[in-house]
Queue: 2 jobs
Job 1
Amino acid sequence: MSTNKKKPVRIALLGCGTVGGGVLRLLRDNQAHLAAQVGAPLEVAHVLVRNPDRVRVPECEPGWVTTDASKVLDDPTVDLVAEVIGGEQPALSYIEQAVDAGKSVVSANKMLLARHGASLLARASKAGVDLAFEASVGGGIPVIRTLRDSLTSDWVSSVHALLNGTCNYILTRMRNEGKVFDEILADAQRLGYAEAEPSLDVDGHDATQKLVVLSMLAFGAEVDDRQVHVEGIRAIDDVDFRFAERFGFALKHLAIGVERDAALELRVHPALIPGSSPLAGVNGVLNGVFVHGRALGPCLLVGQGAGEKPTAVSVVSDIVDVARARVAGVGGLSTGAIRTTPKALVPMDDVECRYYLRFDVVDQPGVLAAIAGALGRHGVSVEHMVQEARSDNGGSASILMITHTSREGAVQRALREVSGHEFMKAAARLIRIEDT
Ligand code: NDP
Ligand code: HSE
């Protein structure tokens, strides 16, 4: 029987904003190609939105649009639900209803996957349906499939990744153009990169949720994203880019996952990486995921981390996979193979790395000795040191130090000791150095 004569796979799209609009475009543009891959045509049945009066992409037929969730979720002719609403609720209850009704689900929602991924996977597995989420991490980069399918034969030992396109875009333009943060963030919002609530991006929570999703597949770990150490990029100063380069580093917003015996080290924060690192040249809205496998060694994935088209590519390729599995009668097979268990996190005080420290101080005798003394008392040893007069603040200087590998707890205690001195003009700046 020809593909077109087969019963269509009927899709309900939940949300039709940046990503949803891209999904409809791709379903229309690549219609015949997708049907050939699935073995049946793909047919949109409903598009659920919040505001029925908003102007949609031309590929969105007015007859599809509804604000009535039960009309969509209770429709027995719908085979597959693609959720691109975002946020925790009502997306969670919509997905649960869809799964319980035997519909397969595709989602781009990292917040939901980070908070409820393990229970949703178990629920989908029990119902014999698939839950696919390629677009939830890395936009258009096929990182979920790589970890879920291609690396099943190995153990992942570490992941170092640039997971937030908005942060990478802002840091790249701050460095290259010296533009101010707010101006660049407004551009990222206009281009459809930022979340509806952009503090999720710039304060590091989006990258944290993505790291937790990756950890489910890379380490088989169930982790609460609220337990992961997170710092955003608001405190980054122009001078840090300049000093980073002077020491041979690039300044990035990094998500890190490392296997440490039975526990996991997970953290998200700005970091200095060597200028020679493969991640150092990953700029703009690009994301990069640098995985080390015990047998595989290094493996780098780079691509568009956000935006309508790349994200739609991931959502639609999930739709194809899930639809193909239904047509072949093997729905739920790949979802059921994902195994996760709760894992403990290494406390932040026990993390060890090198540190970049910047002290903006009154330029007077005894200051350097006081800082070096505090570090020394806590066992933190200095590898490099530079002092530079600050042109923006008469009589003051920046003291930059790179430490040898030290324990986070010791460095933090030394900084607390220094913070009590009157010569400190601002809080000391700490950026971790990752030799990735
Ligand atoms: P948008 O804000 O552009 O779109 C959200 C859509 O969901 C809108 O169509 C909105 O309706 C609809 N919606 C919101 N709340 C409800 C509700 N309660 N009931 C029904 N519909 C609702 O978001 P994006 O398209 O940018 O993001 C969607 C998802 O994809 C998020 O999980 C995001 O994290 C993820 N993602 C986004 C990427 C990007 O580059 N933008 C990249 C990778 C993942 P209306 O139009 O009527 O307001
Ligand atoms: N806001 C997210 C980002 C979208 O900037 O990376 C992609 O998940």
Note: Residues 308-327 form the longest helix (20 residues).
Job 2
Amino acid sequence: MTEIRTAGALFLPPEIESAIRSAINPAERILCVSHVSPDGDAIGSLLGMGWILRHLGKKPTLALADKPSADFNFIPGFDQIVAPSAVADSYDLIICLDASSQDRMGNVYRPEVHGQTPLLVIDHHITNTNFGTLNWVEPGCAAVCQMLVYLADAMGAPLNGSLAVALLTGLITDTLGLRTSNTDAHVLQAAMRLTDGGAILHEIVARTILSRSFAGMRLWGLILSEAKLQDRVIWATISRDQRKAAGAQDGEGEGLAGFLVSAKEADIGATFTERVNKAGEAVVECSFRAKPGFDVSQVALSFGGGGHPPAAGCTLTGPLAEVAAQVSAALQEARRSQLAARKEPTMNSVVHG
Ligand code: AMP
Ligand code: MN
Ligand code: MN
């Protein structure tokens, strides 16, 4: 297994480039996959990788375990994404994008039939478990779509047309419109190059982060009146009955944890959403957000999930109220210990006063 973690690389480091080339060049049948409940970076990087591979003369299969939201159908190639039923047993190479662990690929990836196939992992989650045979993990990048800008450069794929639209979509959605704390000059440079290549920033913003359904808004209305705040942790539960009452489908009303953490009185925000998984079991999807200076990725990891310091999540089984009580307590505890660790004198604080 090869692990390559780079410190904020702004291009494809040569050793990664040659390893990726050696993996892609001889491969005829390539499967690309991203994570369950796909977001803009999952869909954008999947489609973007598809366009890079087509530039190299390949005909990849692009698959997702969960049906992607039609909100993203403006990205060229969206209609070619296939469901797990269309995924074959045999490939020369599997490329996994924006997923921090193997289970995040859902039932697109079947270990019993795909386990021997070379697996190239391209990801930016700090909690990535290096589950590939070749892992390019770059937590310094704000989106996998940013990493693909550097991959496209290395592979000679021009950053325009369909590729530019796909990559700018993931960059915009993962940075909430170039506003998160990891939006640095390199992210802006990547965004500028994609807009220069023809992707229209305001249209992508309007179709993604600024677009909500009425049912989703009604759901927020129901949920917000019952939000709880304790020790600067704010959280809310979303039951199946509440989703039904609001007429909200899966995916509608997403983003509430990010809204909750905008409360002046909070450092950490969380939502707990009751769902039924494919096996028919009741599960609770937990979504966490933290203000800069706080880290929710380790709490998510400790519950079997993952993510980034400011945005992370996990999926647990158990009754909604119990999960919310247990996990919100863990978030309060994590916040307290992060504050305590900050107060301990360090060499740096001595040196810098
Ligand atoms: P979300 O709150 O669903 O927008 O997810 C925030 C971040 O946490 C994303 O980077 C996800 O990839 C990650 N994440 C969410 N749920 C899980 C999970 N069940 N397992 C691993 N990572 C997750
Ligand atoms: Mn994602
Ligand atoms: Mn991402």
Note: Residues 41, 98, 124, 143-144, 174 surround manganese (II) ion (ligand 3) (CB under 6 Å).
